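Can you give me the bound-state structure? Components:
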Amino acid sequence: MFEAIDRYVAHCTTLSPSDMEYFHSILQPFTVSKKSWLLREGELSTHEAYVVKGCLRKYCIDEDGSEIILQFAVEDWWVGDIAGLASQSPSRVYIQALEDSELLLIHRDDKERLFERVPAFERMFRLMIQRSYVVLQDRFVATLAAPADERYLHFLEKYPDIVQRVPQHYIASYLGITPEFLSRIRARLAKKV
Amino acid sequence: MFEAIDRYVAHCTTLSPSDMEYFHSILQPFTVSKKSWLLREGELSTHEAYVVKGCLRKYCIDEDGSEIILQFAVEDWWVGDIAGLASQSPSRVYIQALEDSELLLIHRDDKERLFERVPAFERMFRLMIQRSYVVLQDRFVATLAAPADERYLHFLEKYPDIVQRVPQHYIASYLGITPEFLSRIRARLAKKV
DNA sequence: CGTCTATTTGAATGTACTCAAAAGCGGTGG
DNA sequence: CCACCGCTTTTGAGTACATTCAAATAGACG
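Here's the bound-state model for the whole set.
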């Protein structure tokens, strides 16, 4: 159950056995079945989730009703509504399982206590969000600077595993284009090869 | 010199006088004059900067040579190349003063030592980057979902001060559009009123 | 006052979108 | 096991938002 997350933690820090035990004690194993939601817009978010197995998507819905995928989360990723958790305000995002998934949840309050007891975890979560920030910034720049076909090719390179697991229209949404247009891009690329 | 940053810190935590003194001791006052760079692409970034007075922009240059503004930084903001600092790799961004500016620099290594001595600072910087992440995510969603004129109006609301201080084509770049198009948007809006 | 940069305006173009419909694919039940 | 249903992907035609290139105008600074 904890092998994967222990490896994740080990990348940042080395824990004493008792801290390790304490950490495990606040993690709540949780399963979500395909197509069901971990969080919906308007709900109060209380947990962050580490993905042990499976695949989820975090997305929001804009004014004219179309979905924008903010993140795919597969094994060894964290997913959560950072904005909502921080401000304790209703979520503006949905988190939905795209496959039957096994998670480890950590409650906001338990996390705070964990930070006090083991400051190394504050560091770990700082590094985690720092990485998320860098990924998001790269994606943002690419969305402004690169045409959709390049962004698609880049996605294929960076997340070949996700391409296999996720319906194509979700990838279109992640790239910021319509499913129709992604289909055309693929047709063009196929012709070139 | 330190009044503003002390207020910033006080929002997160309360420091003992000796910790406060230590914190001040690692801050390096620094001035940049208008149009000069604090950091350029390819350089190794070693410091983060707190803006005491002035205005800067962080931007990168994409493949076809056009600038993308990632952030404006005015009084009470932090600015730095988070990606480069974390990975100790050459910067892919530029940080340039748009006005003569007064900064307080903190060196990467001093920051690490500060975190060890006063864990509350690790928390402060975690919260800082968390806020940056939320801002960036909102901006990302808006760029995908909202047309340029709405994004401009939203920018006017959110950063009325910056609009006054910064040339218009930089705002266009921040919004992800060309200066010509922003000019047309403004012409349209002026007509409506 | 002249020069340099920023902004505006015009015309042509392109990337990506919308709406509509057809084709493909996968799961489920008879 | 195959037929059907729903969902995903593809294809087509027309359109819109935003870009590019070019030139004119306006502003700022020495």
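A couple of observations. The mean pLDDT of chain B is 95. Chain B touches chain A at residues 60, 62-64, 66, 68, 70, 82-83, 86, 115, 119, 122-123, 125-127, 129-134, 136-137, 139-141, 143-146, 176 (CB under 8 Å).
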